[in-house]
Amino acid sequence: MSSTFGTLFRVTTFGESHCRGVGAVIDGCPSNMPLTEADIQPQLDRRRPGQSRLSTDRSEADTVTILSGVENGRTLGTPVALLVANKDQRPGDYTAMRDIPRPSHADFTYQEKYGIRAASGGGRSSARETIGRVAAGAVAEKYLRETFGVEIVAWVSGVGTITAPWPDMDTIGRDQVDNNPVRCPDVSIAAEMIGRVEQARADKDSVGGIVSCVCRHLPVGLGEPVFDKLEARLAQAMLSIPATKGFEVGSGFAGARMSGSAHNDPFVKKGSGLGTVTNHSGGIQGGISNGEPLFFRVAFKPPATIGIPQKTVDFSGNDVVLEAGGRHDPCVVPRAVPIVETMAAQVLADLALCQKRLAGHRSGGSR
Length: 367
Description:
Blueprint: E1 4-5, E2 10-14, E3 21-27, H1 37-47, E4 64-68, E5 70-71, E6 74-75, E7 80-85, H2 107-114, H3 130-148, E8 151-159, E9 162-163, H4 174-177, H5 187-202, E10 209-216, H6 230-239, E11 244-249, H7 260-263, E12 267-270, E13 273-276, E14 284-285, E15 288-289, E16 294-300, E17 310-313, E18 319-322, H8 333-362
Antiparallel strand pairs: 1-2, 2-3, 3-7, 4-7, 5-6, 8-9, 8-10, 10-16, 11-16, 12-13, 14-15, 17-18
Helix pairs in contact: 1-3, 1-8, 3-8, 6-8
């Protein structure tokens, strides 16, 4: 099982949803960077369960501890290990589901692939695994912010059939996004989304949605030709998040309905360099960042574990009716916002370090 992501900024996550703890090990974090738990905790607080009536009522503080790689508040260049303890485990909630693969969940595929699975909460397929990603991504985000001034902001742009209009991507900030529990910056549309999620919870059902993200102030040149294109690495990162079903960058699928003359982004002089008049490319051309804002969208399916009785079969093929227990989100997108941001940060930090190494080689340096 591959639990490692990245080339130079390498992140390995560990832990299951109901084990003693979850976390990540970062290999390749630049040295001498100021870093404390206070730099990481805010994103974990935004991801943690029980933060609003729209999420699962599992009660976890999700407090991070830096175990290694930092001394006197600065990174050493050695592996940075991050740990978050699981406190509110209730494996007994899953006893009735131990012999029944939940429809559209990973129970069946994990059991078939490995011959065993963590039956409590889904194990590694649980969204609890993303804690390690968020913690490591917060470190990557700090590196990007301090080195390049990069800003990464994600928000909920859709819940079910409810869609919010595009905000001003030059100015949208996390304060606007976090102004309501559904994390949609449009207040009137947010109220509709909240009502839709609350209805799904009341019906013991679930609903999907879309998270959009913009990354500002990226340097030109991030991304590698052919297989490690920036959009390819982002797609891998985003589609590795639990419950994701789609990814699009820039104009996305809508671009397929446009003509080339309408879709092309003409160049203009901007300051001392070049920029584009429009940004249908979403900040990427030829798989490489062009200096314009990078923006993309990620589609999340409705959570698979629901309380409505479902006709299915157990692992022996016997007909059963499943009423799933446990504590689950009726909609994952509000808590997915920091996950999308921090996975984007991991991709960008990794590619920035790759570009730095390439620049060193081109200049004849040894590093």
